[in-house]
Amino acid sequence: MRVHMVVTGFSLSAYFLVAFFDPGFLSYDLRQKYHALADDVIAVTATVLDVPVKPVVIITAQCVANTLSLELDWADDANTYTYDIDRDGLPLVTGISSSGYSDTAVALGTSYEYTVTAQGPMGPGFAVSDPVSMTTLSVCETIVTPTITLTSFDSRSVDSYGGTPRVFDRRPTFAGTTNIQNAIIQVVVGPPSSFLSEFTANSNGYFSWQPPLNFAFGTQVFTVTAIDPDDSSRKVSTSLQFEIKKKDTSTSGSNSSSEKKTAKTVIPSVGELEVKAPVDFSLSVRNSEKKIFQGEALNIFLFIKNIDSRYHNTNIPVRYSIIDSKGNIVITLTMEELFRRGAEIQRQLDLPASIASGKYFVQTEVSFDQMNVSRREGFTVLDVPLLNLGGGAFITYAEIVNNLGWIVLTLLTLLLFWLFMFMREYGMYLQALRHIAERQLMNAGFITKRREGTK
After folding, report:
1. Are 299 and 190 part of one and the same domain?
2. What is the spatial distance between Cα 176 and Cα 185, in angstroms, rounded to a whole number?
3. Which CATH number characterizes residue 168's domain?
4. Are the beta carbons of 293 and 383 closer than 8 angstroms?
5. 3-state DSSP call for residue 323?
6. Could you read off the pLDDT of 154-211 as tens digits, one per residue?
7. How many domains does the chain have?
8. Which end of the chain is more exposed for a tag (fewer CB within 10 A), N or C?
9. 44 lies in a domain?
């Protein structure tokens, strides 16, 4: 208490001494305290977004300007950040910001089923629409022109950046779609990074790509080309300029200088950014139907079509990676392989028994001095069969668990049927015990069999 009184007295004395030598200070201090309590009212308004609203999708079949399409439409939602669309259970397009989509990668008189997922910005919030289906028009004089569109960059809609996308993530994901089914997708990134990659889009024309290594800092160009697997002359390309920024921010002057330098950067035209790969090789999965059970080995086959003379008959590090459908690396293994023209390289990757079933990709990356050349091939991991019925038919543990309710209901029905039959047989047995037949009386000697002609 004494210490408190001393501190309080010292503070009051100092306050009044300052006020005595500078009266303006006292009036200013009192005025500030009064305004803080009476006049200065700070209003803070915050809007907390709710989970996205479930989209209600309406589909219309059209044939306009020699283009066959299915037009998808749904209501706008302020709680939704982006939309993903699946067609027939496979991704069609991801990361779009508009509440509608025109699907032109369709065939005449064919039925398609769509599901729209609304992604919210608040954590993992999302809402999935009910599946809706529609059949395209059976008559339409179509002129199919190859198209390709980049829809999302770093899990955001490309349109949402409002200019050159600038991100801190050095391994952003690119996603897009083309109207060429199962198109061969070729990716070129540079400079200063140098990446070459080739893989296949799904049957809907959807593709996504993430660099196997970190991009260099600075502005660079992503060029993607879709090639018809049945006609190599039928192809289409598009480019996107982007910037990888450093997280440590510099002074405002340097920032403005950087912005000016970026503004002068010109996007190369499609085909202008040509980077020659030092090696050309193919990648394939040799497992039957590209399907493999959990815990089995994945058979990988590489064929070296051509290689630069500088690297002919040399050992080059090759990285083998297993990637899930979300882009996460599950398994990775780096080995040195002898590269020469016409060589065949076979490797086996043992999958763990704990790996989840579903769609996966095997990616092979060949690292050179300042370039990374990669190929990617898809395959399917199946649950280990619990019962093998032969002839390719089997029953897995997951199928039993998923249909456990029907299995229990079937067994209960069979049990009730068996109890019914048992009670019926038991009732007939009791009835037989109480029933006396003529043959039984004759055998016991109570009656005799009458002869014919006797009365």
Report:
1. no
2. 11
3. 2.60.40.10
4. yes
5. strand
6. 988 998 888 899 999 998 999 999 999 889 999 999 887 788 888 889 889 999 998 8
7. 4
8. C
9. no
For 123, 129, 376, the CA distances from 381, given in Å and listed in that order, are: 29, 27, 16
Asked, for residue 187, whether it belongs to a domain, the answer is yes
In a domain, 263, yes or no: no
pLDDT at position 120 is: 87
228, part of any domain: no
Distance CA 450, CA 455 (A): 8
For residue 12, the one-letter residue type is: L
Residues in the chain: 455
Contact 154, 189 (CB under 8 A): no
- Please tell me whether residues 294 and 374 are part of one structural domain: yes
334 with 416, same domain?
no
Count of C-beta atoms within a 10 Å radius of residue 31: 10
Range of weakest confidence among 15-19, 237-241, 275-279, 398-402: 15-19
End-to-end CA distance of the chain: 137
Structural domain including 26 reads 2-37
Same domain, 26 and 68: no
Q: Give the pLDDT band (50/70/90) at residue 5.
A: low
- Residue 453, amino acid: G
Question: Is residue 452 over pLDDT 80?
Answer: no
The pLDDT value recorded for residue 25 is 53
